[in-house]
Specification:
heterotrimer, A alpha/beta (446), B mainly alpha (313), C mainly alpha (309), A: 446 residues, alpha/beta, Rossmann fold, seven-stranded mixed sheet, five-stranded parallel sheet, 44% helix, B: 313 residues, mainly alpha, two-stranded antiparallel ribbon, 14 helices, 2 strands, globular, transmembrane transporter activity (chain C), transmembrane helix (chain C), amino-acid transport (chain C)
Amino acid sequence: MSTKDEMRSDILTRRAALAALGVGALALSGRRVQAQAGKPDEIKVGIATYLSGPASVFGVPARQAAELLIEELNAAGGIAGVKLRPIFFDEGPGVDHFVAEYRRLVQSEKVDLMFAAISSADCLACAPIAEEMKRPTLLWDCSTQRIFEEAHYDYVFRTIGNSTPEVLAPVLYLLKYKPNFSTVAVVNQDYVWGRDSWTMFKTIVERLKPGVRVVAEMFPRFGATDYSSEVTRLLATKPDVVFNASWGGDLDTFIRQAADRKLLERSLFVLPLGESSLERVGKSLPPGHIIGARGDHWFLHPSPEDAKRLAAFTENFRKRTGVYPIYPCFHMAQAVFAMKAAYEKALVTKGGVWPTDAELAAAFKGLQFPSLTSPVKIREDGQGLANMLVGTTVADPKYSFPILADMVVFPGEMVTTPVGKSSFEWLKTLEPDILSRVPQPVTSRG
Amino acid sequence: MSRYADLVLTLLAAAFVLALSWAVPWLRFVMTIAIAKGLAVLGILLLLRAGQVSFGHALYLSLAAYVVAFMAARIPEVLLLLPLAAVVAASIGLLVGLFVSRYRAIFFGMLNLALSMVFYSMLDKFYEVTRGGDGIRVPVTSFAGVVLSPDQQSWALLILALVLAVGFGAFVRLYLLSPMGSALSALKTREARLEFMGIPARRILLSAYVLSAFMAGCGGALIALSTRHVTPALAYWTASGELVFIAILGGAGSVFGPFLGALAYELTRTYAAALVADAWQMILGTVLLVVILFAPGGLWGIGRALVVRGRQA
Amino acid sequence: MGWLGDNGMLLGLAMLDGLSYAAAVFMVAVGLNLVFGVMHVLNVAHGSLYAIGGYAAASLSLFLIARGMPPWLSIPSLVVSSAIVGAILGPPIERLLRSVSGQEEVLQLLVTFALFMILEDLQKLVWGVQPVVSDAPVKLLGTIDVPFGRDAIPFTSYQLFLLPGVALVTLIGLAWFLRRTLAGRMIVAVTVDREAARAMGINAGKVMLLTFTAGAALAALGGALASPTTSLVPGIGASTIVLSFAVVATAGLGQIEGAALTALMIGLGRSLAVYFAPEFEVVVPYFIMVSVLLVRPQGLFAVPETRRI
């Protein structure tokens, strides 16, 4: 069955359900207890992503990646012969709606697995529910380090890194390869990630390069349209380094307004989420700035585990959408690959008998699975250990936008907070010798 | 409609909600949220009677939700938390009300919106305390001294919501029939006449405002207790707009309207989201437009018209 | 240079940014204020018109450039695309509003709320979710160095001249139109007293159609003017509404000059906040609104209203 047909039948069943609500027929289907024996007809995956609002910049490409990957997986026979069916839902309307949808998908649609979510608030809200409902849940994109540092879960796993390595890697890169700076400034979105990432930046720099002066700390409104005051202040105070961990439209707007006024020629920018804006801002972003990718997500990764797989995915994604895949696509791929690997691991453990929810959940602990770039491991606390790629922008005649040179792939173990420690405390104990362990930069085949 | 008919209808509606929640477990949560929002909308309806539209009542809803989130660790008891949160919301409502009850029409609406947006910004701003956009997890609470299983707790909250809905519904019905209620309507048509009769219009509006804040507070506490996670998004202006939306959808003519509207709203949204995950707003907007254009009395108005026609036939 | 000198110069820079931001805020709010004054409808869909205006302008200028047209065309195309958006979306929305005009005012407001929800998804269907921008006008106009001590701070001419210029032309043009032309006076007449205007033979329906279309075009122009510097994303309309509502309530009913003054206060206030109290940047518009309404409950430029008995 093609996806379109699947989607239609999906809609039909819901339409039927809608009609049945009045009659009460849905009542029966709702209370039926799920029997777990033998191979199911299909594996249903609930996928929470942003389909509306500013974060749909990430949510929609991730959905496209999921559709592409699941189609390919199904064409190759699914997981142990069982096909997958994704059910997408929008995180846009807020936490209460998200929680309602989560419960509905578990109790009514009987999804086998949940991929949630982009928003850290949604992840924090659903983790305890996942535990309560005993539904294996993969945190596929949210970055808050709080989840596994503040609680223990048996059904919740993160298939990517978290905000600590996402900040630490670019800062280590800065300290190791562009260490000649004495003043810094920040322009971050005014919300938790903007504030937390700046606190981390400051903590790391204070620890590893004491004496750096902060000349401006600015936190414009989330979704701001005008950064002229911020840019003017940066031009006037001339910081050596400008840290900006914004994303989406906000980052694009900031880069453009800064570029229009030559700020990018005066200060070195450190952009931990820059990878996702490169293609859109194009030549506005000149060479020489530091770019992170919330993992080692880069379609020109210098040393992917399987170069052919990465090239094929990039090609197919471009064919479908017209743009290069950005990090949320890679994150989605990691969730899909982790799911496949866990089922296969559980099947092997049980000698080919289909696993129960608990057995599937157990399989995620310590699981090592492939990604589009380098393999990822899920630690015993549920946190993923993923490598982090940082590079410097460079112009390349083959592309209409800057690509990355002098790339460093940080090993996940090196930059991730150890199990049982709080990130903010751990960062305070970093030793200067960590800089000597930073890998050599490489420039790939462009 | 007669008091007897209203009573029967109330019991039938409550039974329907309980039956549906038993039959379809995931609906239990949706229903609780819907009734909680209905409580806040009941307050909007009160102000609508006075011709005033508050575009900021999410302030009281979110305030109470945050009170619950903050205090749940210290007072882990639903039956104490809920009144506490509602009283805090009503007290702030009194303070704000003293200020906004001087204003009418757009200024009333906009000041409410502005204050709720200031609260929204503060929740984000003081993120060391509020944890900003990540929100706060509400710890496990007991119900009447008993720690219930998650399943039992969801039943308890639904029943509590129903009891509050019936109680406040009856109270507001009496309130509207009382001289206070008549004064509210008079405030809408000709405020000066009210003043000439020696009735202080501001105080009339203020008391309705505080009552509406109290009910929104109950709703907010219920939302926090059932979602078990609160975020600043609860205070964003679209959340306030949603409450006004529900008031009109359900119909401002009866105390049944807010709850009917809230249930219809939540169910439409759920099914719209399931049907077309990326265009649910369009469906919701269209539903509202159709209701306004063809049934300005709201869903309650439609139902009533049907009943009346049925009797005539 | 002493502390005072440094800060004095920073203040000067802050003024420049404040002025250009004020111009942007004025352009965002002026259309809403006009519509509100005449029709007494708080148009929530204003934010959507702003967003669609921005998208349309970006699309048109990208199209022109892709066709190899001279890039200077991208500047007039901002105005042209806004006029088109106003002409296409204004009349049908006005028609919808009129169909509920006999009923409570809150219903009209909710019609626009419903339209806002519908347009929000529609805009996503047409332009997708990826940020859209067309920066040809900014690039075309280049930058100007403003001296700052021994240094020079580049500002874009677009920000320093075009934006305030358009705002000033709009302000003066509207003021002239409303005070000096017959059509304008009809609008004012309807604003002050719809019934009396009708009794004097003014076709109130026509006036409203005209005003709403103009208001929609101005909303679109606000978005169009932002499109060369701002990446347009889903949700941009929702955040615009709050700002423009604050301006309208602070300014007073339909007061164009009031909107200009409010925009100026917000622009300068925000800009100063970025330098001297960045913590409070976000709440500046609300702070200004609440303080103004505390002193003048009907807004800055209130028309004294007779008490109806």
